[in-house]
């Protein structure tokens, strides 16, 4: 399987450049939007995308401060504002409803998007979505104003090394190759990422509460790895219970990086779910 008619573009919205990639875009095909997780980029979906382009137009984007998107120092890196920026950017790209696939932190952003503008979203697929995290402690927020704190953030996140980080998020370690290591090393080559993360420590509100989640009636499919050590399966079960219109699937012998570990299985369940939602319209 190969990528066909891929285009890399940027859209300028609210003072920031958002980098996105379009695959197999056709006006008569449903649009699937891929939102990556923490310290990642569109790279994390490279194995999943070929399976989806057979039936959908696919847009993969980098949310700030990650990937090739802008990293302005004055941007407010809260989930609410990042979600608002993604929605505004996407509305300038396509003028009809979208399907969102969010991995890890990208799943939490997808839920914020649904809370802000559910009329723009057909359905959501959450892949090991982060949930129920609290804001940073006030002491850490205050410390983040120290000079060069962004270098400490980089040191803290890099001290284990990319390989060791991958070993903790991938269940089958044989899947880890040089391409994967190099791809997940890229954020550490741009200090702007850590300047943005320093501001995220100050701005990031807590994840959506159970009360807020219960108000989201957008159809959601939750897919979880049973060996996920980053966002354990009990979090997925709790999220499923809080989202009133949700479905829950788990994979055995699978960790946190679902798009890397089980791209074919994930794509089949995604397509089945989307087809079911469209048949209900």
Task: Outline the structure in words.
The chain has 281 residues and is an alpha/beta fold. It has twelve helices and eight strands. An eight-stranded mixed beta sheet has the order 1-2-4-3-5-6-7-8, with helices on both faces. Helix 1 (49-52) links the parallel strand 3 (31-35) and strand 4 (57-61). It is globular and about 55 Å long. It starts with 6 loop residues before the first strand and ends with a helix.
Task: Write a short abstract of this structure.
The chain is an alpha/beta fold.
Structural class: alpha/beta
**Spatial order of strands in the largest sheet:** 1-2-4-3-5-6-7-8
Main β sheet profile:
8 strands, mixed
Low-confidence stretches at least 5 residues in length (pLDDT < 50)?
Answer: none
The count of β-strands is: 8
* Helix residue percentage: 25-40%
**Beta content:** 15-25%
Measure the end-to-end span.
31 Å
**Large-scale geometry:** globular
Topology summary:
Blueprint lengths: L6 E7 L2 E8 L7 E5 L13 H4 L4 E5 L17 H15 L4 E6 L1 H12 L4 E7 L10 H6 L5 H10 L3 H8 L8 H8 L5 H13 L6 H4 L6 E6 L7 H10 L3 E6 L6 H4 L1 H17 L2
Parallel strand pairs: 3-4, 3-5, 5-6, 6-7, 7-8
Antiparallel strand pairs: 1-2, 2-4
Helix pairs in contact: 2-3, 5-8
Main attributes of the structure:
single chain; 281 residues; alpha/beta
